[in-house]
Design brief:
single chain; mainly alpha; Amino acid/polyamine transporter I; two-stranded antiparallel sheet; 75% helix; globular
Length: 462
């Protein structure tokens, strides 16, 4: 029953809804993700500086990239190719490009409706814009529960399992030892709150992403003459012109959409929880930055894994005996030697660890919606996360992962419904941003122009 409902939710409902919402925001915004692509770099450079005690735009970006760039980029892409063929990568790209527009609006709205905490930091996300944007506190509560179950609990255990099993297979380290080490290191970070998470992510994420990207460039350089053929296989398989898997075109699209969303999270509403904590002059600034994080995840990092696999002699179309992270490890090993598999394992550990930090914050943010500024609840959740991380390192979590996939799909439906509900507010925010840029000024939110909405004026001093 779990599998049947999962297939229905992802194979029929979410495919249509994700594409429809992505197209709606792309067309209505006149391709905001393409119009402001160059501006993403300028905003990002300016966002590296921040007010004392605040989280910068860049720090919020790397925390969200820490969540987006994870095991989905290594194991998820391999699974998509194994079950959906090379064409699944094309649909991952398409979902990513449209998801950039979706991410722009959900993160901009999260900024608009964020709330100031007593210590001067910010809180926000879908639960907040559902409550203050459209007055749907009940729907916001449903979203918060789904977020807590999916990321705060389910995916944290799954990520721990991925790390422990990878290290056990590659280095022979006992899973319980990995579990203990993760609990100690993770505990030293999460008890410091979002600011310490941001500081750690600011170091780990750029390094790990750059290393993995450079490894892919090495593979491309070694097989430069074969790259056009590999890209052409992706395009042909995407439209059923080259049968690669059982299930035909439907399986290709399903795997591309499913793994694409799992990897870049555009439309889930998870990244807006982090985007809202940044200190920026205009909400759309962070929307632009977060759209870029989808590009980093899907168009760069997922493509790296696809290239590593498709340019190797390990992948055989139609063969499903080697999949997941093992396929990526073997493929990298075939390119650069035995150290390649070790490199993939180390990258996976860093990716998964940063994802756990990100998942923890999402769960913490969902709890704060119900129990605001309650130290006992917050510390209890931290202990529960550490317990789940240790437990997950010792388990086979296929059932947990299947359940978390369902709650993630429901999470997306609730968030996407809220985004469509706030379509006019989102477009109004974009017009305000466009207008100020045309006037030659750096966009800044003027609270007096938004008095008709329930925004926190303390978050926007003007």
């Amino acid at each position: 029953m779990l599998t049947a409902f999962n297939d229905f939710l992802w194979g029929q409902v979410l495919v249509l809804v994700l594409v429809a919402v992505g197209l709606l925001f792309t067309v209505a915004s006149r391709g905001v993700q393409f119009r402001y692509f160059r501006r993403m770099f300028g905003v990002l450079r300016g966002g590296m500086h921040h007010e004392r005690g605040q989280v910068s735009s860049f720090q919020a970006l790397v925390v969200s990239v820490a969540g987006r760039v994870g095991s989905g980029n290594i194991a998820g892409v391999a699974v998509a190719i194994t079950l959906g063929g090379p064409g699944a990568v094309f649909w991952m790209w398409l979902i990513g490009l449209m998801g950039m527009a979706t991410s722009f609006f959900e993160c901009s709205l999260a900024q608009l409706f964020k709330r100031t905490e007593p210590d001067g930091s910010f809180r926000g996300g879908p639960a907040y814009y559902l409550t203050h944007g459209v007055g749907q506190r009940g729907l916001a509560a449903v979203y918060s529960v789904l977020l807590l179950v999916t990321f705060g609990l389910g995916f944290n255990a799954v990520q721990s399992y991925v790390v422990a099993t990878s290290l056990a297979e590659s280095f022979g380290i006992s899973t319980w030892i990995t579990g203990v080490v993760m609990v100690v290191v993770l505990g030293s970070v999460i008890f410091g709150g979002i600011r310490r998470i941001a500081l750690v992510s600011e170091v780990i994420v750029p390094i790990m992403a750059l290393m993995y990207f450079l490894a892919a460039l090495v593979v491309i350089a070694l097989h430069i003459t074969e790259v056009p053929a590999a890209l052409w296989i992706i395009v042909k398989s995407a439209f059923g012109l080259e049968q690669a898997v059982g299930g035909g075109l439907g399986a290709v699209i399903l795997q591309g959409v499913k793994r694409g969303l799992f990897s870049n999270e555009a439309g889930l509403g998870s990244a807006p929880n982090v985007a809202a904590v940044a200190h920026v002059p205009h909400p759309a600034n962070q929307g632009v930055v977060q759209a870029f994080s989808v590009f980093i995840d899907t168009m760069i990092m997922c493509s790296c894994t696809a290239v590593i696999i498709l340019l190797s002699d390990v992948y055989q179309p139609g063969a499903a005996d080697v999949d997941g992270v093992l396929l990526t490890q073997l493929a990298m090993g075939s390119h650069v030697g035995s150290w390649g598999a070790t490199f993939v394992s180390v990258a996976l550990v860093l990716f998964a660890f940063s994802s756990i930090l990100y998942n923890y914050y999402l769960g913490d943010n969902s709890l704060s919606f119900f129990s605001h500024d309650n130290a006992t609840v917050a510390n209890g959740f931290r202990v529960a996360v550490l317990g789940l991380v240790f437990w997950g390192s010792l388990q086979d979590l296929s059932t947990v992962f299947g359940f978390a996939e369902i709650t993630m799909g429901l999470l997306a439906l609730v968030n996407l419904a809220g985004l469509v509900w706030m379509y006019r507010i989102g477009m109004r925010l974009l017009r305000d941003y466009d207008t100020q840029l045309r006037q030659g000024v750096e966009p800044r939110l003027r609270p007096e122009a938004w008095r008709d909405l329930d925004i926190d004026t303390k978050s926007w001093p003007g």
